[in-house]
Amino acid sequence: MTNEAAYIEIEELSQKINYYNNQYYQNNESEITDYEFDQLMARLIALENEYPELKKSDSPSQRVGGTITKEFETVTHKYRMLSLANTYSADELRDFDKRVEKGLGGQPYEYICELKFDGVAISLTYKNGVLDTAVTRGDGTKGDNITANARTIKSIPLKVSGDHVPTEFEVRGEVFMPSKVFIELNEQKEAAGEERLANPRNTASGTLKMQDSSIVAARKLDCYLYALLGENIAVNTHEDAIHKIETLGFHVSQTYQKCATIDEVIAYVQKWETQRHELDVETDGIVIKVNSLDQQNELGFTAKNPRWAISYKYKAESALTRLNDVVYQVGRTGSITPVAELEPVLLAGTTVKRASLHNANEIERQDLRIGDYVFVEKGGEIIPKVTGVDLSQRGSNAVPFKYTQSCPACGSELVRYEGEANHYCPNVEACPPQIKGMIEHFIHRKAMDIDSLGEQTIKLLYDKGYLHNVADLYDLTYDQIIELEGFKDLSAQNLLKGIEASKSAPFELLLFGLGIRFVGKTVAEKLAVHFKNMDQLMQATYDELIEVPEIGERIAQSLLAYFAKEENKEIVARLKLAGLQMQIDESQFQRTSDALNAATFVISGVFENHSREELQAMIKDHGGKVVSSISAKLDYLLAGDKMGPAKLEKATKLGIKIISEHDFEVMLSQGI
């Protein structure tokens, strides 16, 4: 293929992909299947890889990510991103209206009302129709340049076209994680034995600051735009601005409304108090703005907030219902979680039948009893929780609740470790939920990544008696698999191929996949890098283990206990015999430099140019180590604003060198 032919095909593919994206996000129409869309994208990426000189910054291939950002550049906003004052009642809204009326001296005015999406504010600047920069709100004056990550969000146009597109303009909006995506992500984390994410807003915020844009792309973030700024943009009202960004192809929520009076505003607020739960995005209030831009300028600002806009915040929703029973779930680590069985009740747009009770301490604190009427709340969380008891409805025959003393799955007597709130089933080798949970953790994509094996197949294999631990996976035969319900020749072959492919997974992923208590992905990596291979790790003493950065007493004791069991030694031996990786591939941990010369750092406080996560990555990438606590062995305390006085006092007392963010940047460039 000639360069000219490649250029023509790339242009045609880009136009098609942009068209289908626009149809999906602007017109809610899917004109082709996901598979057909992916095929178009794959062809475009292949051509751009073959002809890199033809790849443009606004190419749809930017959606898949792949850029690694070690540091996020700080950018000063051209127009400040101000926060809004909050109101919580109709009376407070009427007070706001009186201030607007007074400020405008009796002029007629109107409002625009919009839902307040619970996400992350973002500013997008376009130059000559192409996305130039994407910046977070930050402190309102300066934010982080997250352009590479923003490009992966499919509802953010990489290029806009049409009549009268300003040479340079800025649009603002809210990046969010759709509720369905958040629920799916939490289900994946739970299957991997990882801690569930708290809520969609925090998850969206953390995702936008990830260094690998391909991971951001996989998180399926979305974005609603609601403001237009710039010179010569030819709009007189906020409503005009919304219509303008709609015509430019931006994703605008069709929930906004123009209101002539404050009574109409209050009616809008009341309408969406319940109707908002039908949306696939978390909302926490309403934003009310004076519509006329000239009147906005006339009203001006206080020191912190615009006088022409205000936010109405909805209270966390709560419902009262009967506690019918308490059941117990067993996690892969043996942790027992109590769950309230409730009389079904409508809450925040969904029917709630179950709610979290957290642990025995929480049940005791609330003095819960079967038959009580309890308050259930979502309050921005996806998982409902019991928040209290209506004692006025408690029956005279209600008896104090007794927490179970035995495992609901295998009957073993529960244990409670010192300093922990949860109860545990100690029967690791024979408790069915623990066995299946450990295998599910082992095969997860962040561990051994056996994608042709899922929860249901594990259950079938366990029920047949073919799986008792993770080593049994590598003894499975075609004849055993083909007899399972739903399996045919191709699916059986794919499963065997997936298991075989997992043998090449890196040692640190195998170590994480074993599911040793307190050994998460990061800890597994640190252990692998330090001990190099499984044999040395298994032979390590307590003193040798706690010499590893970030490995404290709890992790060391857990490792010693795990490798002390003959059953676990046998599992490791069988995995080794099956051909799994038992030593580190050190080439993947090559660093940018050794400027920090293995020095140890504690990071504390808030920093101007970098987040704490970024600083941690920079230290590691330049040969340093990050630890969590201050001791005499520490080399440096990297101190930011609002650092806790206790850490500062301890570091001073021990003679630890305290450095600023600027000192650290100099250290990176000049070395220690």
UniProtKB/TrEMBL annotation:
Binding positions (NAD(+)): D34, Y35, E36, F37, D38, S83, L84, E114, R137, E174, K289, K313
Xref: SMART domains: BRCT, HhH1, LIGANc
Keywords (A to Z) from UniProt: Coiled coil, DNA damage, DNA repair, DNA replication, Ligase, Magnesium, Manganese, Metal-binding, NAD, Zinc
EC numbers on record: 6.5.1.2
Coiled coil: 3-57
Catalytic activity, reaction form: NAD(+) + (deoxyribonucleotide)n-3'-hydroxyl + 5'-phospho-(deoxyribonucleotide)m = (deoxyribonucleotide)n+m + AMP + beta-nicotinamide D-nucleotide
Superkingdom: Bacteria
Enzyme class label: ligase
Domain BRCT stretches: 591-672
Active site annotation, chain numbering: K116
Cofactor(s), names only, from the UniProt record: Mg(2+); Mn(2+)
MF terms (GO), sorted A to Z: DNA ligase (NAD+) activity
Residues annotated for Zn(2+) binding in this entry: C407, C410, C425, C431
NCBIfam families the UniProt entry points to: dnlj (TIGR00575), PRK07956.1 (NF005932)
Function of the protein: DNA ligase that catalyzes the formation of phosphodiester linkages between 5'-phosphoryl and 3'-hydroxyl groups in double-stranded DNA using NAD as a coenzyme and as the energy source for the reaction. It is essential for DNA replication and repair of damaged DNA.
Family as reported in the entry's similarity comment: Belongs to the NAD-dependent DNA ligase family. LigA subfamily.
Protein name listed in UniProt: DNA ligase
Gene: ligA
